[in-house]
Write a structure and sequence with these properties.
This protein has 466 residues and is an alpha+beta fold. The protein is 19% helix and 41% strand. The chain has two domains: 10-226, PmbA/TldD superfamily (PmbA/TldD fold); 229-464, no CATH class. The strands form four sheets. Strands 1, 2, 3, 4, 5, 6, 7 and 8 form an eight-stranded mixed β-sheet that branches. The longest helix is centred in the first third of the chain and has 17 residues, at 124-140. The chain is globular.
Length: 466
């Protein structure tokens, strides 16, 4: 079992919650957080920045029917917490008869172990040396690489949650992410390469990462695009490879399956439960239970133990991602999906590790079916219209396909469509499943999430060229 984290006196928490109930709130919650972080940045073979610090605060949520009131403070005294409760409840307060009898403290098994978290005094010089090795390996790829950035981020987040249903639970989450970026230049032409693996672990995560391989990957990615041909424009079949290719499902479809949008009927899928919304070859999951994965959690930020949620099965919509308020507004069962960036935010339904499940086709089989199209080996960023899932995403690395074979690298490929349309156009799903770390922003701030998929074939999508 885990060691209980004590950030706030239990009797003070009970007194504050009882005060909120006395003012007529239907539900009262205290989210207590202490976070330590450290960052290191190497720019062009020199230490550019070393940062870090500790943040502490308490978020207070009052619920009156469908209405949520939220405030936060860095002052943990009972007097200050009750003052915030009174301020929040000013326009909604009424006589309350309920009181909290006592808390039931839940203990959690430690699933996501971190042997070299920020609690351990791992030498800073050793971390810098690892990042310097990444910098050197990237530069070795070509003398046309003119800029290299290598960096690390570590965070230890401790949370303790109390609520008026008697819940008392805590968790420690250790995060690490390594980033490598390269810029290549040839005359006036420039291109970039980027990769940023992460995990719910400590510095020991780097034992499984080879800085030379990561640097070579980033450097070659930049060089591949440097003198590549322009991308053709028009409608065509596209093969999107595994891992970060899943960012399209995350952004264009995943957000539409959160009750944050479903409850407001701002999602095109709000009334599509148990109906066919994708090609039957598509099954998708949001899973918070994967050991040491970047987007995993043992409990969500409302204190509910996490779970694996089957979103789509054989093309049929089977579940949404549901937080407490989402359950109250939609009637769907909670899925342990209430998340927030920190105590400064009220929780909302959010993704964890979200991915399309593996199929049976090989990447080579998929490419062989395309006469004229493109292969997106790695996706980059883009933009999405929240209500409809309309998106445009650029490919970080892509290639032209001619007569079933990869012909040459191309650059500036942009994919334009909508999430609902893409789901229907997927005709083949690969067997090379992989995950990739990312950050997701929404109404409750920025949280670590994992995207993923095997390679998929989209039969018809609009491609924007240079």
């Amino acid at each position: 079992m885990s060691v209980a984290i004590q950030l706030l006196d239990k009797q003070s928490a009970k007194s504050v919650i009882d005060y909120g109930l006395f003012l007529g709130a239907d539900f009262v919650e205290l989210f207590v957080e202490k976070t330590q972080n450290q960052s290191i940045k190497i720019l062009n073979s020199k230490v550019d920045d070393i940062g870090g610090g500790v943040d502490f605060g308490i978020g207070i949520r009052l619920v009156y029917g469908p209405k949520v009131l939220y405030g936060f403070t860095n002052n943990p005294t009972e007097e200050e917490l009750k003052k915030i409760v009174m301020t929040l409840a000013t326009t909604d307060k009424k006589s309350g008869l309920k009181t909290l009898s006592d808390f039931t403290t839940k203990d959690l098994a430690i699933i996501h172990k971190a042997s070299l978290s920020l609690h351990n005094a791992y030498p800073l010089d050793a971390k810098i040396q690892w990042l310097m090795s990444l910098d050197k390996a990237t530069r070795t790829v070509s003398d046309k690489i003119v800029q290299v950035v290598s960096s690390s981020m570590q965070k230890c987040q401790q949370v303790e949650i109390f609520n008026s249903e008697g819940l008392h639970i805590s968790e420690e989450r250790n995060y690490i992410r390594i980033m490598g970026q390269a810029v290549a230049q040839d005359g006036t032409e420039q291109s970039s390469g980027y990769d940023a693996p992460g995990a719910l672990r400590g510095w020991e995560f780097t034992d499984a990462l080879n800085p030379n391989q990561l640097g070579e990957l980033v450097g070659k990615q930049a060089m591949t695009k440097l003198n590549a041909a322009s991308c053709p424009a028009g409608r065509m079949p596209v093969i999107i490879d595994n891992a970060f290719g899943g960012v399209i499902f995350h952004e264009a479809c995943g957000h539409l399956l959160e009750t944050t949008s479903v409850a407001k009927k701002a999602s095109v899928f709000h009334d599509k439960m148990d109906t066919l919304i994708a090609n039957p070859c598509v099954s998708a999951v949001d899973d918070g239970t994967i050991e040491n994965e970047w987007g995993s959690i043992s409990i969500d930020d409302e204190g509910m133990e996490t779970q694996k949620t089957q979103l789509i099965k054989n093309g049929v919509l089977t579940s949404f991602m549901v937080d407490k308020m989402g359950a109250q507004k939609t009637g769907f069962a909670r899925t342990g999906s209430g998340r927030r960036q920190s105590y400064r935010f009220a929780p909302a339904s959010r993704m964890r590790n979200t991915f399309i499940e593996a199929g049976h086709s090989t990447l080579e089989e998929m490419i062989s079916t395309v006469k004229d199209g493109i292969y997106c080996k790695k996706m980059g960023g883009g933009s999405v219209q929240p209500g409809t899932g309309e998106f445009n995403f650029n490919a970080q690395e892509s290639y032209l396909i001619k007569n079933g074979k990869i012909e040459k690298p191309i650059k500036s490929a942009t994919l334009i469509s909508t999430g609902p349309e893409v789901l229907k156009q997927i005709s083949m799903v690969g067997n090379n499943f992989a995950l990739a770390a990312g950050m997701c922003g929404s109404v409750s701030g920025s949280v670590p999430t994992t995207v993923g998929q095997p390679a998929i074939k989209v039969d018809d999508i609009l491609v924007g060229g240079r």
